[in-house]
Amino acid sequence: MNLKEWIFTTDHKRVGILYLIGSLAAFAVAGVMALLMRAELSTIGPTITANPTNYNVWLYTHGAVMILGFQIPALTGFFANFCIPLMIGAKDVAFPRVNALSVWLFYVGVILALATFFIPDPPDVMWTGYPPYSTITTGNTAMYSFTVLILGFASIIGGVNFLTTVAYMRAPGLTLNKLNIFVWCTLGAFVLQLIFVPVLGTAVSLISMDKYLGTNFFDPAKGGDVLTYQNLFWFYSHPAVYVIFLPFIGVVFEVLSTHAKSSVFNYKMVVYGGIGGIVLLAGEVWVHHLYVSGMADWLRIGQMVTTLMISIPVGLMMISLVGTLYKSSIAFTTPMLYALGVVFLFLIGGLTGIPLAVPSLTLAVSDTYYVVGHFHYVMAVAGTFSIFAGIYHWFPKFSGRMYNEFWGKIGFWLTFIGSNIVFWTMMDIGVEGMPRRYYDYAHFPQFESAHQLMTLGAVILGLGFAIAVLNWIIGAIKGPPAGDNPWGSPSLEWTTVSPPPHGNWPTPPSVSEDWHPYAYKKG
Amino acid sequence: MHKQLAAILRRTTVAVFGFALAASSWAAGPAQSTVPKINDPARGWDSLWHEVIVDITIIGILFAVVTAYFVFTSRRTAANPVGASPKLSPASAVGWTVLPIFVFLSIDLYTAANGWVLWNHYRDVPADRLEVKLESGMYSWDYTYPNGVRTQNELIVPAGKPVMLRMTSRDTLHSHYIPDFRVKEDSMPGRVTYLWFHPTKPGEHLVTCAEYCGVMHSYMAGRVIVKSAEEYAAWMKQEETMLAAATATEATPAPAKAGTPAAKPKKT
Description:
- The complex is a heterodimer of chains A (523) and B (268).
- Chain A is an all-alpha fold.
- Chain A has a single domain, classed as Cytochrome c oxidase-like, subunit I domain (Cytochrome C Oxidase, Chain A), CATH 1.20.210.10.
- Chain A is built from 17 helices and no strands.
- By secondary structure, chain B is an alpha+beta fold.
- Chain B has a five-stranded mixed β-sheet, with no helix packed on it.
- In chain B, 34% of the residues are buried.
- The chains are: A mainly alpha (523), B alpha+beta (268).
- At the A-B interface, helix 3, helix 9, helix 10, helix 11 and helix 12 of A face helix 3, helix 4, strand 7 and strand 9 of B.
């Protein structure tokens, strides 16, 4: 294996695996940040650092890297790159070299994010970077802006590439209504990225211009406005939740239906109602992040209704996931356990979001651990579980080998138990008033035992994740050969050899009239 | 228990009858609300929160039970090698889309209607109120009463009178969060925001900063001290005297009351 071949590769599968390695490295670093924070919070007062700035930098890194360095690249980088051309029967993506550029940019972004630890003035602006703090802090806001810009640019390039690929490079006979749900979901995510990433780029550029170049976009003393940034930021960053949600729920559809050998329940409802509905609504709900920040009352009320309506497409998808299990044939493999874990725990994550859609209710719980618990159920639990389900599911395809089922299950149960301990407790003390982003909770002594419980849960959770990652590394090196189609799926990516060669198929596949990616057969 | 049952029943009914009923119950809501002249948002919050939590628990359990049932009855065995779910007819596919949309939408609109009513309570400040200006800064809360009296990190208010804060900030974002009164709102430079709450009996309540504002964010705390009307009047009189004395001597502007520094809230 030649390192140069990998770095300069234009093969979509290798680009995908580079994305996977980079995003898992980012995940490990951001995960360690979470453990450091939990260690700090295990007692009232200073525990492992006496300097609150250290804690704030961990918090910044954890949030920014988990979202921009792990979840978005793993889902729209690794899974999209590896699966989409294989699922649509294409030899590669439409612009393979542009694809290589996107992974290079991604690595530059990740290195920039991790360089945080080696500069004297690390950014401490949280992943949101709200001014005025971000424009007056001694921390390095430019670092934050450039990290976001570069990762955003990598993602836009990917978006253009995949929309073109799916539009023009589908196998003969593969009509739109026969695309895998994952392909549809990723298309939806890329449409959102293309529309909204430029807004984020604008927002983070403007704060750096304010701080370093003397402009006054957000300085009210000179005619700027503080709230403008928050609007710009969330105008991207709420759709970003769906950029993560859509591909991850797509992965869950693939895993669930394959390992249950049951076709996706009401396919068109998922595609047009679920994915279409989310893409339509995604840009009209950002104000729910600003319910307590002094927005005009009519905007808060208007977006309460649109935010609540998100429950419709998401609910349709949940009905389809549950319906897929009806009269199915479930094999309880590791990826299936993670996928089922998502179905159960996303219920908690999704439903606890409903009170947060109501502005009057958020006046008490906004900016508390309730919100943190809620979005960790969505992102850290459902999101990460889906990524893990997907990696296990396609592991035989991209490595050609099999992971260890026993350790896979151990890892799953540890993460399942650990995450519920951490995030349920979080929501619980949040409702009672524990505010987020606190280095110390000296005036909430009643929560000390809850914090200690969460620290314990975080250790269990971290152990589970570590076992899974080790399982992949060991499996990729010396697992038993997996065969071309270990799960018995008709989906196109399983029709080639494992791992697929450059060009994917010796002769490009075509699909027949009665073929469908979810038409399972016996055996 | 019967209260919860009633809540469940009511919402199930609404889910069935949908939008029309939801809208009418919202429209009728404010008119029916009876005696108390002051709609205390904190109490309204408690009951709406409770209702919504009951709602989502029911929905969650419903989904989870059905899922668990399907999972336990669909293990792969030699007799069940491949899924055998029936193929949906076009009509039932549409039905499975439209019916859930209808149910979800009615729950959404019902929740929105309730949320709106409570929202109005949060935003309509009673006319008979004590209005205090708040300037927040890294890392303290500075209150100014209508008569010019100033305090720091201690908001002293009389029991039984609604209190309104008109807030701004001299540096970064802050959020004046009083957990016991279920309310917060950000303050920022360049804009004036407000919140109000209704203290009913003497006591002390924590105020804490809920919007990341800098290095010492987690130490930015204060207290709302609710005194009985008489004690409050006595305290205010004393403050006024001190303020007058300070103004008379033409010394530096009335010093902010030497409250405890925000970094270390005093435990009392």
